Amino acid sequence: MAQVFDRSSNALARASLVLTGLLVIVLGVTLDQLQRSPWVTRQGQRAEQPVPFSHKHHVEGLGLQCQYCHTTVEDSSYAGIPPTKTCINCHSQIWTNAALLQPVRDSWATDASIQWIKVHDLPDYVYFNHEIHVNKGIGCASCHGRVDQMPLMYMQNTLQMEWCLNCHRNPAVNLRPTSEIYNMAWAEPSTDKPVWCAPTGKGASGTGPTAESVACLTKDPSSNGNPEIAMLQAQAGMESQPHATSAGQTESDGPPMAVLVPASKYRKFTSQIDLGRYLTSQYHIRPPNELTSCETCHR
C-alpha cells in the first residue's frame, strides 16, 4: 500500500502542537495584561468633568480638609460627593463670574445636581466601606494617591481585586496613626523620623471608638517643649473645665478627644512594619484569613 503521509508529517504534527501551545500561552498572557492595563482599569485617566475641579488648588493651595467636601467619609460606606451648596459657600463670594463655574451657578439656580463622573467606580457586586478603613488607620493617600497634587482627579491605583487582597493579606504595611489619616504627606517611620505610640485606655475597653485607642506623636514625648504634648495638655485643660447644665449637673467644655499618656508608656517605632503590627493589634484588625474571605467584599 502506498504511503499516504510523508515522513516529514510527524515533525510537522509535533511542530503544530508546540505552536498551538505557544499560541494559547501568548493569548493568555496578552489577555491577562490587557485586563490589568489602564485601557480596562482606567488607571491614570482623567475624566472630562462638567467642572474642571482641581484638588491641587483646593487642598494644597487653599488648605481645605477632605471632610469639608466629603462629609460622610468617617461614618458612612460612601465618602459622599459634595452638593452644589458646598461650592456656593465660597463661590458666591469669589470667582462669581468665572466662565468655568457656570455649571455650578446653573445647578444652584435650577436645583439640578451637577453630573459628576465617578472616578473611583467599583463594580456593583463589591461592597466597600469608607468608614471602617478610615477608622482603622488607612490614609486617604494609600488608596487615592497624592490627591493634593492632582490638578485633575484620576485613579492612582487599579482598585482591582488583587490590589485589595494584597493589602488585606498584610494590612500592617499601610496602617498609620488615625491622627495622620488626612495627612497626604505622611511618610512611614524611619530611623531619622521615628514615631512614638502608646495605648490610651480608650476604644479597646469599649469606652470610645477604636480610633482613640492609640495616641501617636512624631516628636519624642520625653523631650521638653514638645509642641504635640503641649497641645494635648491645652485640650485636656479645656475638657477639665466643668460648667453647669440646665439639669443642674456639670459637664466639661471640650470634646472628649485629648488623652494625656505618660511619656514612659510611649513606644518608639523606626519602621513601618513594626508600627503596622502594633496598630494592627491596637485597632483590633481581623487576621488576614478573615480579611481575605469572600464575604468581606461580596455581600
Task: Give an account of the 3D structure.
The protein has 299 residues and is mostly helical. Among the domains are: 55-81 and 116-173, no CATH class; 189-238 and 257-270, no CATH class. Helices cover 36% and strands 6% of the residues. It is built from twelve helices and five strands. The chain has helices at residues 8-35, 38-41, 55-61, 66-69, 84-91, 102-110, 130-134, 140-144, 161-169, 227-239, 272-282, 288-291, and strands spanning 195-199, 214-217, 242-244, 250-252, 267-269. A three-stranded antiparallel sheet has the order 2-1-5, with helices on one face. It has a two-stranded antiparallel sheet with strand order 3-4. A hairpin with a 5-residue loop joins strand 3 and strand 4. The radius of gyration is 27 Å and the shape is flat.
Q: Which structural traits does this protein have?
A:
299 residues, mainly alpha, 3-stranded antiparallel beta sheet, two-stranded antiparallel sheet, 12 helices
> Which runs of at least 5 residues are low in confidence (pLDDT < 50)?
239-258
Which series of helices and strands comes N to C?
Answer: HHHHHHHHHEEHEEEHH
Distance between the termini: 68 Å
- Summarize model confidence as the mean pLDDT: 84
Which range does the strand content fall in?
A: 5-15%
Class based on secondary structure composition and strand pairing: mainly alpha
The main sheet orders its strands as 2-1-5
Q: Gyration radius, to the nearest Å? A: 27 Å
